[in-house]
């Protein structure tokens, strides 16, 4: 039969589609078998990384609770897309102008979620976004004022289905 196919096509006979599926399936099974024996460890930010990130933002300055309002649900079903909003009580004039707003977390692979710089034409110190959370944790928002002061708010969030799950090989 192979010689008839060779004569009709002028070359090698075409590969049987069932044989192709068998070879592809065997390859996938082999890769899955190898990956299942590699030990995987979850990656999360350490308290030292969080402290370093905070020191890089504040330069070691004292952070005072207040003036910042972090709006995030205390219980979220899925950590893949968590809406949050940050607003800061400020006149946005002179020494009371907010220069930046930062959001940090405890247990994601990276402690920095977002840093937003506000220009001199910003009328309000607020923004909203969606973030990912790996696990139940405390989310913190910090406002940096033009007089060098830092103000903050934090919310404890319970996450039932975590996101940001990265595996270290």
Write the layout of secondary structure elements.
Blueprint: H1 2-9, H2 17-36, E1 41-42, H3 47-58, E2 63-65, E3 68-72, E4 75-78, E5 82-88, E6 98-105, E7 112-117, E8 126-131, E9 137-145, E10 150-161, E11 167-168
Annotation keywords:
24% helix, 2 domains, elongated, three-stranded antiparallel beta sheet, Immunoglobulin-like, 3 helices, six-stranded mixed beta sheet, 169 residues, alpha+beta, single chain
Overall spatial form = elongated
CATH homology superfamily name of the largest domain: SoxY domain
Rg, rounded, reads: 27 Å
Termini gap = 49 Å
Count of domain modules: 2
Percent of sequence in beta strands: 35-45%
What CATH architecture of the largest domain do you see? Sandwich
Task: Give the helix tally.
Answer: 3
Count of DSSP strands: 11
The computed structural class is alpha+beta
Spans of at least 5 consecutive residues with low confidence? 34-42
CATH topology of the largest domain, which one? Immunoglobulin-like
The helix-strand sequence is: HHEHEEEEEEEEEE
Helix content, binned percent: 10-25%
Query: What is the mean pLDDT?
Result: 82
In the CATH hierarchy, what is the class of the largest domain? Mainly Beta
Largest sheet report: 6 strands, mixed
Can you describe what's shown?
The strands form three sheets. Strands 2, 4, 6, 7, 9 and 10 form a six-stranded mixed β-sheet that branches. The longest helix has 20 residues, at 17-36. This protein folds into two domains: 2-36, no CATH class; 42-168, SoxY domain (Immunoglobulin-like), CATH 2.60.40. The chain is an alpha+beta fold and 169 residues long. Strand 9 and strand 10 (150-161) form a beta hairpin. It has helices at residues 2-9, 17-36, 47-58, and strands at residues 41-42, 63-65, 68-72, 75-78, 82-88, 98-105, 112-117, 126-131, 137-145, 150-161, 167-168. 24% of the residues lie in helices and 38% in strands.
